[in-house]
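Case study 2.
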Amino acid sequence: GTVISFGINKEAYVKIELFDILGHEVSPTNFESLFEPGNKSVPISLKGLPSGTYFVRILTAYGEVQSVKLVKE
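Prediction:
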């Protein structure tokens, strides 16, 4: 697994999604929670997934979107 770090400016509901290189959502790692402002870290498990490139999308209730590229070897 790995840890995804991100920052938010105000309290927000955050959803973290994991996609494979073809854009298919990888369901076991979806995460949703309400966060206070500041820098946050969320563990993401890649257990059971084949080696390859994945993308993490971090969405907030305010429409902010951040993307992170992950490579599992």
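The chain is about 0% helix and 60% strand.
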